[in-house]
Amino acid sequence: MNHQTKTQFIAVASITSELTAVISISKEISLAAANAKAIAFRAGDKARGFQPITDFINDLAKEMIQNIEIINELATSLCRITIKEYRKTEAFNKFELITTTCGSAVHAHSMQKPLADAKAIVQNCQLQFKRDVALLMDHLDTVTQHAKTAGIIATYSRIEASQAGEYLQSLQTVSKSVDNAAHKIHDHVQRCIIALSRFGSANK
């Protein structure tokens, strides 16, 4: 396996690991929003400003999970492309060696088509890999923005929670958990971006 292929496998494996964590954390945010909604309902008018925030947080978590699922599909595609590129590169190298070895043999020209076909497939894999990396980066940017938004909403929700009387502590605990989750998601996504940034198409 050549260096480029190893690099691609390492990057994809790293991304997959980070994304698994992000999905788990996003589900935690969704659960926190559900808990906050229940608390806000019990608090009634004291948490009137907090109630719509819980719906927004829940929707945001769902959007993040949807984006991560798309990113997971792209990461799987990158893995398949990398395997295909490796196999076709091996085939091309063998065809090239045979062509060189055959020299002026009678049927040496018959190797030209499989040689050209293998080369075209390798080049197509490389182009597809770059396209998928670019798409993946776009979705990672979206998740990063969602994480930032969740952090801002968490800060705002702490302010709203201050009006909730005896429910203040419970709501602030939820806000803190959302804020912590947002920071964790941001960190995981940044590690994905770093893993991809080694590729020329992933300019960041």
Automatic annotation (TrEMBL):
Query: Per its UniProt entry, which superkingdom is the organism in?
Result: Bacteria
Q: What is this protein called?
A: Methyl-accepting chemotaxis protein
The taxonomic lineage of its organism, from the top, reads: Bacteria, Pseudomonadati, Pseudomonadota, Gammaproteobacteria, Methylococcales
